[in-house]
């Protein structure tokens, strides 16, 4: 059983930065991918970014391109989401999730999920 745990959320002013962490012991698997998703109140969960250990590729939603950066530390078995120039519309609960194979933006494709961490962007 793979257990994922997010951390690093909080309250930040517009234009500020946060770094989210996802502890993912199962990500040592060569054929796997970690995705970051978010869900705002009253909205569906949406894909934000993904990093694939399978082919090394990185993916970003159009809404976060140029502002968010995903990275991984294999030794710490941790995936990070660096979020800069945050906007009020980035407010949501952020989740990390793991799937076998390559990156996907589809929620049902991910088998393992963390509990989520709240990010609030407000002045």
Would you kindly provide a written description of the structure presented here, covering whatever features stand out?
The model has no long low-confidence stretch (mean pLDDT 93). A hairpin with a 5-residue loop joins strand 5 and strand 6. The radius of gyration is 13 Å and the shape is globular. By secondary structure, the protein is mostly beta strands. It contains no helices and 11 strands.
In terms of topology, how is this protein built?
Layout: E1 5-7, E2 10-12, E3 18-23, E4 32-39, E5 46-52, E6 58-60, E7 68-73, E8 78-83, E9 92-100, E10 112-113, E11 117-121
Indicate the percent of residues in helices. under 10%
Could you state the order of secondary-structure elements as H and E? EEEEEEEEEEE
Weakly predicted, low-confidence segments? none
Structural class: mainly beta
Our count of helices gives: 0
User: What shape does the CA trace take?
Assistant: globular
How many distinct beta strands? Answer: 11
**Whole-number average pLDDT?**
93
Computed Rg: 13 Å
């Amino acid at each position: 059983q793979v257990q994922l745990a997010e951390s690093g959320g909080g309250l930040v002013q517009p234009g500020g930065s946060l770094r989210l962490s996802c502890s993912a012991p199962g990500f040592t698997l060569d054929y796997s991918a970690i995705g970051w998703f978010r869900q705002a109140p009253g909205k569906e969960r949406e894909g934000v970014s993904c990093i694939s250990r399978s082919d090394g590729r990185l993916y970003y939603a159009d809404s976060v391109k140029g502002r968010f950066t995903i990275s991984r530390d294999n030794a710490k078995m941790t995936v990070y989401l660096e979020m800069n120039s945050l906007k009020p519309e980035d407010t949501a609960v952020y989740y990390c999730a793991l799937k076998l194979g390559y990156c996907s933006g589809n929620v049902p494709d991910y088998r393992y999920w963390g509990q989520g961490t709240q990010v609030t962007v407000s002045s």
